[in-house]
Amino acid sequence: MATDAKQIAQVVDAKGLSCPMPIVKTAQAVKMVAPGELIEVLATDPGSTKDFVAWAKTTGNELVEQTVDAGVYRFVIRRK
Amino acid sequence: MDEPINLVLFSGTDDKLQAAAVLAAGAAALGRPVNVFLQYWALDAFRADRIGRDHGLAPEAGEAGRRAVDALAKAGQASWAETFRQAKELGSVDIQACSLSMDLLGIEESDLDPVVDGVEGVTAFYLSAGEGNIVFI
Fold it and tell me: Which of A9, B51, B61, B71 is most deeply buried (CB count within 10 A of its CB)?
């Protein structure tokens, strides 16, 4: 089930950025939204799949969606 | 996970500093405190007038390694200095210069880039490190 774009509070375009910048940008963005709001992250770093799972597990933010399309990883995160 | 991760930076080549910056930024993104202790040639690389320079690579990089590092930089990878700055904005990252290494290099605190928070001795570093792991790079 794809998240409705209208529900996304902020988009982080981390395409082309190497590790750990997708996570760094996401951690920064999470601080800018209210608890419960959604953030969409787009990344091309192949390590990001495992990184986002680990980051969500450690920080308590929820990884709502995780997809990949044509080499672009998309993550939807709900702020704790 | 509240124990800090503690990075002792000794080497002053761009590849090792980049690897250290990635470790620091990753820990900061996880909300973990980070202490960075700068010794010898790593400290030299944090001088305000040298931080943006080419600091070379570790010998094992070779020519192919040089090309690979250059390609990543050209593709837009943030420099190690910029990565440390972002890590500091994100979380609790404290960067301290080793006082003995300051004497060795004959430099003052005012010679260091503002990303460095201060100067301390090894005892103060161990106190900050607490029970957290110490990584020597």
Answer: B51
Q: Name the residue facing B77 among A18, A23, A59 (closest C-beta).
A: A18
For domain A7-78, say whether CATH 3.30.110.40 is its number. yes
Is the minimum CB–CB distance between A46 and chain B shorter than 8 Å? no
pLDDT in tens, B73-105: 999 899 999 999 999 999 999 999 999 999 999
Nearest to A20 among B22, B75, B89 (CB): B22
Interface test with B, best of A13, A17, A21, A58 (most B CBs within 10 A): A21
Written as one string, the DSSP assignment of A67-80 is EEETTEEEEEEE--
3-state helix, strand, coil in chain A (%, to 5): 30, 35, 35
The reported pLDDT for the residue numbered B92 is 96
Cβ within 8 Å, pair B22-A19: yes
The string of pLDDT tens digits covering residues A9-50 is 999 999 999 989 999 999 999 999 999 999 999 999 999 999
pTM: 0.90
